[in-house]
Amino acid sequence: MRFAPADAAALPLWLVDSGADLPAELSPAQRAFAQAQGFDGAAGTLCLLPGASGALDGALFGWGSAANRRRGRFPLARAAAALPAGAWRLATELPEAETEALGWLFEGYRFGRYAPAKVPGARLVCPAGVDAARLEAIAAGEALTRDLINTPPNDMGPDELEAAVRALAGRHGATVSVIAGDDLLAQGYPLIHAVGRASPRAPRLIELSWGGEGPELALVGKGVCFDTGGLNLKPGSSMGLMKKDMGGAATVLGLAAMIMALALPLRLRVLIPAVENAVSGAAFRPQDVYTSRKGLTVEINNTDAEGRLVLADALAAADEACPDLILCMATLTGAARVALGPEVPPFYTDDEALAAALAGAAGAVADPLWRMPLWEPYETLIEPGIADLDNAPSGGMAGSITAALFLRRFVTETGRFAHFDIYGWQPAAAPGRPKGAVGQGARAILAALPGVLGL
Length: 455
What we know:
alpha/beta; Leucine Aminopeptidase, subunit E, domain 1; Aminopeptidase; 9-stranded mixed beta sheet; 19 strands; metalloaminopeptidase activity
């Protein structure tokens, strides 16, 4: 996922709008060839151009209509997938050059750990005026997120997630500390311990710290490496994608990789509660009541609503340090997918300026987000009576909102907080996004941070 060298002998690639004239730079023979092929600029069509000797001398790519392009993201990535291997340069001026160049890099990702994967061989020379190093850092962070989510649970448990954090820290001079097993109880993380104690793979809280000055950013990511549902066991059809239940952790690690690679002037703290929600005699039970790190008591009414439990303790720990901003990312609720589908993650915040910054950045960098309300009248739904909080309100309505309200109860010292209920998965291949794991929200956050934190 890198650009071709700037001095590469790159072939020209022209982008042609639907029904538009062919580029004036084409030779008469090339023009006649394209016309004979019936090339008309229809979205996604490709016409390879021969030179005088018959060798490949460039290509035309159908750019379609503006309306067509609004229906999807990264249309240039389709060219990256279709072009022959080698270096290519954009011969058409493109206002969205930065976003489309990034999409080209994203198209170069394939997960090949367990079987050979055919990686597109066409490489783009970074367009003039675009910061190649920045985009490569973003692409590398995205690749890390995808790799972690795509890895199956036998090779991505709490131990392996910790190893991935340590490897990332080693590349950027960050420090890592871990609290694991029964030490979680001794050091005040009872909810993380309760959720993870049934598995032979010890639960843990993984913390990465980086940066010595500037505002403090705390990133909290749900690291449920596999979710059986616990004693409220999921049916097989619902368990099939649960390797991605650590997608929040993978996404905050990808974002952390971007922040550190770009040397943003801030102090970064990443907290990942890493567990496997398993079934055994030690499993936590429906109707159990636990006292959280925050001191709030929580009644367990569904062991399959475990993500908010592990996040609660981690958020409380983040909140104790009063950072300038706390961001929480989690593959938390099916309700979010019912409301907005797989491509548009909802986010929740009480901070109007933060919400506006995130929404604006999401549109600017083609990383969709949609604000949902922290609806105060629903607070009573998460109050069971026997305890301060209910982890799984009955009725099934407003599930994403009530989960966000639950998490907000654990962030009371820090003024600025946002929660992202992501999916982390691409159900069908799309430009720049092969079927499988995908990052969501990280690029929008990265783009918003300078304004939000005054960097």
